[in-house]
Structure to design on (517 residues):
């Protein structure tokens, strides 16, 4: 009850930080907010060109490669941006946290939320892609009523990002090295997740390696998302349970770690 | 009698002073393996008991490093006491360092809302206060300029204008009256005086005995983390002057 009342009191702060992040992100750029969907559009075109044409093979057996890639990229981009921003949030707000009492969890959470909103705007690109391929009739994606399930993987990803963000920002207060390590981790994650390739198309003999790839919750989440918007299938229940379980455990761990350490933040930032 | 505004009971706060700050993993593990992670305990505040009634204006005196700012931080809720308890009734407006909550890429106007939210006020409430803040800060023409282009005096003025406009119950002033030019200082002193009339509770840290005499009715002296004297402002200030001139 106490926590809820506190949250209610500081809901304005949450709103202001989210608003600030979004406003400042594209301030001083000529195209402004337009970049939220221009950027994924352009990077996807680059990736489609490289992996669809130059390297060729990796896209074999995919219904519609550009949409396949875009789905993975949008989700990955949200996850990596949100967690990176959340990771640095406590350090970046050191001047406030040192002077004024504020519920500290607001900072990582607000950073994930603001990225979530830009992610939502960038989904317009996906809608445009889908519309384009349906109208031209070339490799149209299978849009069925299952598309309505698309929010499910997105919400799971949001839970995961908040959990990871809370763990990372706690670690970052004590060890700034995490900043650099996590950059490397995100690069690894990009290639470990089937974003540009399809997991079945990989020629890997090692069973262990295949399991490692499939244990990645990002794999389950992107596959679920593709089921909804590309394959037009029901979400795979195993993916759902695994990803949801993983996300919830991460969130609980994140909250627990954060609450145990938050009183010590001020001594280190 | 109504509930006191601030109650501090047997409060102590300890810092670990490690000889070198370890802030990367490599060093941490090396030191852990070498068993070099020694900490020296340092009690910044020890067994503090303090009750501040509503409407009291308490001056906090003490030499550098006596724990004045630490005490204010504990009361503001920024630091958690190691032992003991602190309870506060009412809204606190900390003016520990004016303009600390500003984002430098944000314009003055946007920062007013951000700063207000940091203190827990809603947009609607700030909307009502907006004109008053702008007028008091005398920055009407600069409201759409990013704060990074403000001078330090302008920042301080805006920070003071916001913190004083929101009608807090408890005001924490940490040497803030030393900023700005003489004209603005006069104006802010007047503003604080007018807040007293409304019965605001004030904690005021200053090295200037004159200012404390002018503003406060009570005072305490902190030395090495302990309260060594407390009482009426007049007596305490005399005592403090003695301490200063007598070299203890």
């Amino acid at each position: 009850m106490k926590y809820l009342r506190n949250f209610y009191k500081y809901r304005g702060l949450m709103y202001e930080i989210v608003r600030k992040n979004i406003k400042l992100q594209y301030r001083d750029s000529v195209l402004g907010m337009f970049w939220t969907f221009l950027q994924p559009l352009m990077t996807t075109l680059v990736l489609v060109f490289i992996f669809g044409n130059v390297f060729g093979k990796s896209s074999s057996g995919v219904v519609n490669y550009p949409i396949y890639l875009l789905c993975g990229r949008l989700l990955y981009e949200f996850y990596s941006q949100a967690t990176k921003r959340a990771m640095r949030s406590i350090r970046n707000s050191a001047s406030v946290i040192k002077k004024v009492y504020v519920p500290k969890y607001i900072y990582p959470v607000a950073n994930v939320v603001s990225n979530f909103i830009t992610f939502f705007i960038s989904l317009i690109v996906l809608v445009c892609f889908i519309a384009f391929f349906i109208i031209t009739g070339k490799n149209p994606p299978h849009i069925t009523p299952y598309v309505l399930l698309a929010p499910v993987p997105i919400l799971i990803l949001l839970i995961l990002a908040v959990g990871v963000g809370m763990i990372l920002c706690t670690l970052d207060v004590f060890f700034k090295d995490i900043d650099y390590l996590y950059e490397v981790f995100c690069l690894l994650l990009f290639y470990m997740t089937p974003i540009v390739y399809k997991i079945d198309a990989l020629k890997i003999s090692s069973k262990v390696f295949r399991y490692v790839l499939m244990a990645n919750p990002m794999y389950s989440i992107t596959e679920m998302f593709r089921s909804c918007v590309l394959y037009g299938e029901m979400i795979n229940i195993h993916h759902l349970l695994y990803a949801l379980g993983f996300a919830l455990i991460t969130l609980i761990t994140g909250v627990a770690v954060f609450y145990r350490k938050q009183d010590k933040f001020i001594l280190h930032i | 009698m109504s509930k006191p505004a601030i109650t501090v009971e047997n409060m102590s706060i300890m810092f670990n002073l490690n000889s070198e700050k370890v802030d990367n993993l490599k060093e941490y593990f090396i030191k852990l393996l070498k068993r070099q992670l020694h900490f020296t305990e340092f009690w910044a505040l020890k067994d503090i008991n303090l009750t501040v009634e509503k409407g009291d204006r308490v001056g906090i005196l003490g030499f550098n490093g006596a724990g004045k700012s630490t005490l204010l931080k504990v009361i503001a809720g920024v630091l958690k006491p190691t032992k003991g308890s602190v309870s506060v009734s009412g809204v606190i407006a900390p003016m520990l360092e004016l303009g600390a909550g500003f984002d430098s890429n944000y314009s003055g106007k946007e920062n007013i809302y951000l700063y207000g939210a940091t203190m827990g006020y809603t947009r609607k409430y700030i909307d009502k206060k907006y004109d008053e803040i702008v007028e008091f800060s005398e920055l009407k023409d600069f409201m759409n300029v990013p704060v990074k282009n403000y001078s330090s005096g302008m920042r301080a003025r805006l920070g003071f204008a916001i913190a004083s406009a929101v009608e807090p119950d408890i005001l924490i002033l940490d040497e803030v009256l030393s900023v700005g030019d003489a004209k603005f200082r006069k104006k802010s002193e007047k503003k604080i005086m007018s807040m007293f009339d409304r019965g605001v509770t004030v904690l005021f840290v200053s090295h200037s005995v004159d200012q404390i005499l002018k503003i406060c009715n009570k005072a305490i002296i902190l030395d090495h983390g302990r309260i060594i004297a407390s009482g009426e402002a007049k007596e305490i200030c005399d005592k403090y002057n003695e301490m200063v001139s007598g070299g203890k």
